[in-house]
Design a protein that fits this description.
- This protein has helices at about 5-25, 85-90, 100-105, 110-135, 160-170, 200-210, 225-230, 245-255; strands at about 30-40, 45, 50, 55, 65-75, 95-100, 145, 185, 190, 195, 215-220, 235-240.
- By secondary structure, the chain is an alpha/beta fold.
- Strand 11 (about 215-220), helix 7 (about 225-230) and strand 12 form a beta-alpha-beta unit.
- It is globular, with a radius of gyration of 23 Å.
């Protein structure tokens, strides 16, 4: 038991290691990534000089308006994120701290992660094509679809790919554009049966969408609350759960008939 006189000296002696531990904790790398709004790309047009959607074996419509897929940009897997970085991002609306595993779910090296993301993108493109042709009841025709999107990985552009294919082949079903001439943005995975899935990073994607001129944002219904949290002014949310629901909502929005879902 320490006496009253000896305790301050003991605390002073122990203080240096404590300060050292705190400093180490503050600047130690944490299992997080810092993300911000990324690029968007109009799947109806070109990206980096290449047509995003190319279709052969069927007549293709001339489209107006835009369907912009959205992304986030995150610190690389080998970037050290420390407590000051987390605190700084916590108070900013244009950045978000995300668990590293949610951004880079597979692989330990940059090469492994890039390979995984390419595989996810390829699978997403295949399912987006199947979902669109099945929705149009043209999956038994000899229609070839090529999808190219440089420097983007992962499955979250699936919904927009499917909508782009539908718009190029069928529009709104009565001669008009699916977009109604608007800049439509969105995000969401898609399965071959047309089911739309959640993706993460939605508040940052809405910011990217509004920055690039979108007035409407298609969001997986399960992520409505996330999208509403920091929704940019002038951006309308439309929740979706299926490709058919997304098409129906855009047709209703364009024609002014029927109910357009809202979060």
């Amino acid at each position: 038991m320490l006496s009253r006189l000896s305790r301050p000296r003991t605390l002073a002696i122990c203080g240096a290691p404590v300060v050292g531990l705190l400093a180490t904790a503050v600047f130690a790398p944490l299992p997080f990534s810092v993300a911000q709004p990324g690029m968007t790309a109009d799947v109806l047009g070109e990206n980096k000089g290449a047509q995003v959607i190319t279709i052969s074996g069927a007549p293709v419509r001339e489209t107006t308006g835009q369907l912009r897929m959205t992304t986030i940009e995150a610190t690389s897997p080998d970037t050290r994120v420390s407590l000051p970085d987390v605190i700084d991002s916590w108070f900013r609306t244009d950045q978000a701290v995300m668990p590293r595993d949610s951004v880079y779910p597979s692989g330990d090296t940059t090469q492994e992660i890039e390979q995984y993301n390419r595989e996810q993108m390829k699978e997403s493109q295949d399912e987006a094509t199947e979902a669109a042709l099945t929705y149009l009841k043209r999956d038994d025709e000899d229609i070839k679809v090529s999808l190219k999107l440089a420097d983007v990985g992962g499955p979250s552009a699936g919904l927009l790919f499917s909508l782009g294919i539908v718009d190029k082949l069928n529009g709104n079903g009565s001669g008009g554009d699916l977009t109604g001439g608007r800049v439509i943005a969105g995000t969401g995975t898609i399965d071959a049966d047309g089911t739309v899935g959640a993706v993460g990073g939605v508040p940052l994607k809405t910011q990217a969408a509004r920055r690039d001129g979108a007035t409407v944002f298609l969001v997986p219904k399960a992520e409505c609350a996330d999208a509403q949290a920091e929704l940019p002014k002038g951006l309308r949310l439309i929740p979706v759960t299926t490709l058919k629901g997304a098409v129906d909502a855009l047709v209703a929005l364009e024609k002014g008939t029927g109910k357009v879902p809202s979060c």
